[in-house]
Amino acid sequence: MKTFIYENKYMIMISLISSVCLLILFREIIKAKVKKMKRYNGVELASATFIGDRELQEDAMNIVLEEKGILAVLADGRGKNHVGKISSQLAVKIFAELFANENAISNANYFFKRAFNITNREILKKLYDHQGGASIVCAVIIEDLLHYALVGNTMIAVFRNNELIPLSEGHTVNVLAQRGFYQGKISKQQALWALKEKRLLNYVGQDGFKDVEIYDVPIRLKKGDLIMLMSDGIHQHASWNKLEEAMKKHLTCDQIAENIIHQLKDDAIVNKDNASIIIMRYRGHRLRV
């Protein structure tokens, strides 16, 4: 009888451990999502997202495929009580609809300015007195040209010749202070103080919104170029060397995105943020217009 009870306890313990392991595995599958996409008109596409240790996923992203070109947009929401999530989802929706419905190819620069301004206005209307908003990075590929713009602490980079090159600087206080010092707008002491501060200064969803970081000249893509759009959960927590190493491997965009997300999950980072990434590989064929 004692042997029977002991064996039952042993089996119950194994069952409980197995159940806990399955629950943990299921939770991790839910938390990290990799959206697999095929090639389109000479461009390979993939995206991935990770909720981190946050209660809500406040990142949103979309890829719009049109004959006139490809749009990739990623928004990182900010604010409490679902405000950040609402802001990022609204931003992505507006950008996608404008690109699909308008002739964005005629003037990409004008498209970016209009999309950011409409998004800012609509978020303010939607949120009323609630404080919130979103950082946004957007890229448009037309033929073999990359057009891009951003607001906030999102980032865009291009991997070429085994080097990951950031195209954007961002709108946190420390970045803007450094820029202001070099332009002679603030003193060295003011710049040193501000460089310690990484608070987000500019984003859509505020009355004072005005600055959009837009390319000076579109980048002519070369065969094999990788374009990466990322939220701050990626570029502030994953080392630049690790991102470069992930790009150097001869993998698909899906595999690269998945590897970067898994590295973040495995790193011993306290209070992990939402992390999202879009990767596009230019295959050397001009997109038909």
TrEMBL record:
PROSITE patterns assigned: PPM_2
Asked if Nuclease is a keyword of the record, the answer is no
Q: Which residues cross the membrane?
A: 12-30
Domain PPM-type phosphatase, residue spans: 42-282
Q: Gene3D superfamilies annotated for this entry?
A: PPM-type phosphatase domain
Transmembrane found in the keyword field: yes
Q: Keywords assigned by UniProt?
A: Membrane, Transmembrane, Transmembrane helix
> Entry's Pfam families?
PP2C_2
* Annotated protein name in UniProt: Serine/threonine protein phosphatase PrpC
Source taxonomy: Bacteria, Bacillati, Bacillota, Clostridia, Peptostreptococcales
